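Molecular record:
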Amino acid sequence: MILKGNLIFTREAGRLTVLPRGGLVLDDSGVILDVLASVPDRPEGQVVCDCGDRMILQSFSDMHLHAPQYPMLGMGMDLPLLDWLKTYTFRTEARFSDTEYARRVYRALAAELIANGTTRVLMFSSLHTDATIILMEELERAGVTGLVGKVNMDRNGGENYEETTEESKRETLRWLEGCEGFRRVRPALTPRFTPCCTDELMAWLGKLAEERGLPVQSHLSENRGEVELVRGLHPDCAQYWETYAKYGLWNGSTAMAHCVLSDRRERAAIRDAGVLAVHCADSNLNLCSGVAPVRTMLREGVRVALGSDIAGGAQLAMNQVITMSIRASKMRRMQENWETDFLTVAEGYYLGTTAGERFFGAGGGFAVGDALHAIVVDDSTLPEPARSLTLTERFERAIYLMRPEQITAVYSGGRRVK
């Protein structure tokens, strides 16, 4: 099959490839065989799915979000991080001991992800094994792919939301056994963050990650109060990142959300280990954590992708996460007396798509050999422009304005799922 339309994709940060009336040649399983700048009128032996004047874009990758926080979107936005966790978050996540509740919430979440064109995720669940399995089932049912983690936390969780160390180990192994039947959603080890995990648990998770070749996700240098708490818990570590590195949780299969307060030395440690830094602009502004130095990270060679970080972030749609990241970079530029450049739309699109795709081993940007992850966008229902727009202008406007009703089709892992 050939999927024909206005192709817009990115393989390098800041550089768009725009192919008017181009085509994606797909095999029967939805793997990309070729990218065509133009499609013959009668391609021999191929069925053409013609999207007309619609745009065919890469689907989005949300590289940091908390599934059990979906019910509390938009709540507690006047609180700093640690107070927000204690007042709202841990209480909400504790509800997921109820598997019927988990099923309802996670089915709705998975459907909304697909409706907004997000087909890849790196996601936290709660500490509940059964609810985490349900989450993975609902994501796979909806067509979402990626990595999900049962949260580990054996201290500082508050009432009704904390494991013993032995329970955390036992339930992690039970969860991993339950993951064996999934094809498109796989496990990632998930120590919530250093303050919620004892040294014994962190060491055990590091050994497990090495033995089983499992990726790792957690949080790093998000908030000043958090950083001070970590310093008190680990006086032997000069910096936050070392609390992960000393237990074997710091390598090219690790993703760390936020990195708002990462200084030059910590950024160098992120870069040198190949760790993915996940920028969560909406959350960082909502909780007054700060604005991560994304431009500096990119210039220094740090891998960066984007996350919605619901429910610290209040927007699940990744095009809105992209535009918030652009606005945050403009705030950073003004704070630094206009000495740093802000993120462009093309750069934001790269961070919200290709940068995440590559963490999952894809080539990025409609690469030959990758299963198709794409959205078809009908921007004709957006407000009528005053003049004819170029494809690049239409693309920019769609990134800022599109909603689920403009996304007329979604392809995930080679399958059409919307």
Notes: Residues 151 and 190 are 5 Å apart (CA to CA). The chain has two domains: 2-58+364-416, 60-352. The two ends are 18 Å apart (CA to CA). The first helix runs from residue 81 to 94.
